[in-house]
Design brief:
Blueprint: H1 4-17, H2 22-35, H3 40-46, H4 53-64, H5 70-85, H6 91-104, H7 112-129, H8 136-147, H9 151-156, H10 158-167
């Protein structure tokens, strides 16, 4: 099982960009509390039904701490690419999640390389969508090529991936 800290980082990112809802996170916290030893903050997540999204994000951030978010981010990018390739999310949703990651980027540290790649893809999609430069299909393929390397990271988080497929409500 991946550490609760890693999973909290992953779920933080998913909740922050709108890939999942607060109820899914609470359900995850409840399942950990029932089966494992856990940090106190997980009880706070479990009791968050009446809290705001920002309050839940803050609690998740306390759990994963100020450690490197690269592994959970890599897993999330891999999951998004898989969902785009299989048609489970549209190009508009995919690039919406990428844009949300960029907006949320001030809350966590993203490597310069990944930040530059996400920013370039976000800008390219905007230009293609507006009919200014390139096509949406071209940018979709570019995103799959550039971010496809992260698909391997999904298996590293198999437990989280399975939970994401059963608990998370995608807003398609």
């Amino acid at each position: 099982m991946r550490s609760i800290r890693d999973l909290a980082g992953y779920y933080y990112l998913c909740l922050a960009i709108g890939l999942c809802n607060k109820e899914a996170i609470i359900e995850w916290a409840d399942s950990i509390i029932a089966d494992d030893t856990y940090p106190y903050e997980l009880i706070e997540v479990s009791l968050s039904r009446e809290r705001t999204l920002n309050e839940v994000l803050s609690i998740l951030k306390e759990i994963y701490g100020k450690y490197d978010i690269d592994a959970p981010l890599s897993k999330l990018l891999g999951l998004l690419v898989i969902k785009l390739e299989t048609g489970k999310i549209t190009e508009d949703k995919f690039f919406g999640y990428i844009s949300s990651l960029l907006l949320q980027g001030s809350a966590f540290t993203i490597s310069e390389e990944v930040l530059h790649m996400l920013d370039r893809l976000d800008d390219s999609y905007y230009l293609a969508f507006q009919g200014i430069y390139g096509s949406v299909e071209q940018i979709r393929n570019e995103a799959i090529n550039d971010l496809g390397k992260y698909k391997d990271c999904v298996s590293l988080y198999e437990e989280a991936y399975n939970s994401a497929n059963t608990l998370f409500t995608l807003r398609a």
